[in-house]
Amino acid sequence: MPSLRDTQIAFSAALRSEDPGAAGLLLVDDGIAPEDRLQIYRNNHRLAVLATMQATYPVIERLGGADWFRHSVSRYHDIYPSRSGDLQYLGENYPDFLRSALAGTSHGYFADVAALEWGYQCVLTAADRAPVDLEVLRAVAAQDYERLVFVPRPALRLVQSEFPIFAIWQANQPSVPEVPATRLDAGPSRVLLIRREDHVELRELSEGSSLLLQHWLAATPLGAAAAAVAARVVEFDLGLSLRELLSLATIADVFCADECGSGARCDSYMAALRPAALPDG
């Protein structure tokens, strides 16, 4: 007699199979043929998968149309079946799936739009952590600025694309009755997604600010991050980018890399900070 685990694995495989004999000995004939009984589960399973993906990727469905989206989801789920009882993570690999499936076509930008929608879902469910009190920066000596590591809040994502994905996302919201034409050559998009008290905020960042935040996400100290961004962005203004990112409450913590070692919060260093005059600039 098969174990419960083996029976569950076989039943899961039968749900995804189109083999009319896949039911095997899993189901008994109790007035309804085993294959017909299994088909009820298959239909419910497909509807649940489609509904979950529709809730996760409404803009992609609107861009591609209902029929295309249903077919795309079916092919995606064949390759990436759910491996969790929580369907929240069902669409995790959909941007990569679209990137491969639509490579070389005029719809390749769908993958980046999907990455933006998945980022939205990640921000919705990420851990909550309050922004750091920026008063701690007032006691940092000017010569120590370059050693500061800024730790972004967990309910934050940065999605970048060569396509204007933010404009595409805005144009395809339910409140927009008719989708306006969006030029795919309108320029790149660098979108910050951050959870507020009652909503997820999406905001376009400048190239310099987005690259600086990208380095912060990699735990790069401020001096090295600023130098790397300045090497790529001719008119990069560190002061402007700092003010932009800090005013958006993007940072959960800050520590001195040399005091703590990269990647770890320095409690002793932070405790030593006391309000003082923050140098201009």
Describe the structure.
- This protein is mainly α.
- The chain folds into two domains: 1-108, no CATH class; 129-281, no CATH class.
- 46% of the residues lie in helices and 10% in strands.
- The chain has twelve helices and five strands.
- The chain has helices at 4-16, 34-56, 58-64, 66-79, 94-101, 110-125, 165-171, 207-217, 222-232, 238-247, 257-260, 267-272; strands at residues 148-152, 156-161, 189-195, 200-204, 251-256.
- A three-stranded antiparallel β-sheet has the order 2-3-4, with helices on both faces. The chain has a two-stranded antiparallel sheet with strand order 1-5.
- Strand 3 (189-195) and strand 4 form a beta hairpin.
- Helix 3 runs antiparallel to helix 6, helix 8 runs antiparallel to helix 9 and helix 8 crosses helix 10 (238-247).
- The chain is elongated, with a radius of gyration of 24 Å.
- The model is unreliable at 260-281 (pLDDT under 50).
